[in-house]
Amino acid sequence: MRHSRVIITIVAFTLVLSSFMGAGSACGEIARLSGQPQQPESAAAASRASSVPGAKTASTGGDQALFINSAVAKGHLGEMVKVCGTIASVRSGKRMNYLNIGADFPRQHLGVAISVKNQPSFEAALGPLKAFAGRQLCATGKLRSQKGQPVLDVYEPQALELSGN
């Protein structure tokens, strides 16, 4: 009961903020208050046109991607998304590298998959993959399921936005 009151209070606060500051500012304020990473300004503009309650959209070179938090990735399999979260760990295998978002493997919210053959282009543009741990990441692509966990395959460095050290 108490949890639902908090949610109702946040929703009411959002409506008040959006009427005074505009929808983009209200979304940023909700993200700030909830500890969620804030969306980039270009996505904020696109989010004002979103018809999905609680979701935002971001332009991805012609396609529209749903802007989501990594914790809800499992509910958006098969969709084009822009998902943000903290990289908890980086796992490297023979064929794939995984950036585990939200928690360490196997409890990650999402795995961002980078093929070993594409790794040199990512490292040339963004630095060593192992140094990504602890940084904020936004990744754009289509979500799929792998062994019951959401995975987002990325093929070029432009699909990733890193922030933090």
Description:
This protein has 165 residues and is α+β, with helices and mostly antiparallel strands. It has helices at residues 2-21, 23-34, 41-47, 119-126, and strands at residues 56-60, 63-69, 80-92, 96-101, 110-115, 136-146, 149-154, 160-163.
CATH class of the largest domain: Mainly Beta
Per CATH, the architecture of the largest domain is: Beta Barrel
- Arrangement of strands in the largest sheet: 3-4-5-7-6
Biggest sheet record: 5 strands, mixed, barrel
Secondary structure: helix percent: 25-40%
How large is the count of helical segments? 4
Arithmetic mean pLDDT:
76
Could you list the spans in which at least 5 consecutive residues all have pLDDT below 50? 11-55
N- to C-terminal separation?
Answer: 40 Å
The beta-strand count equals 8
List keywords for this structure.
165 residues, alpha+beta, OB fold (Dihydrolipoamide Acetyltransferase, E2P), 2 domains, 4 helices, 28% helix, globular
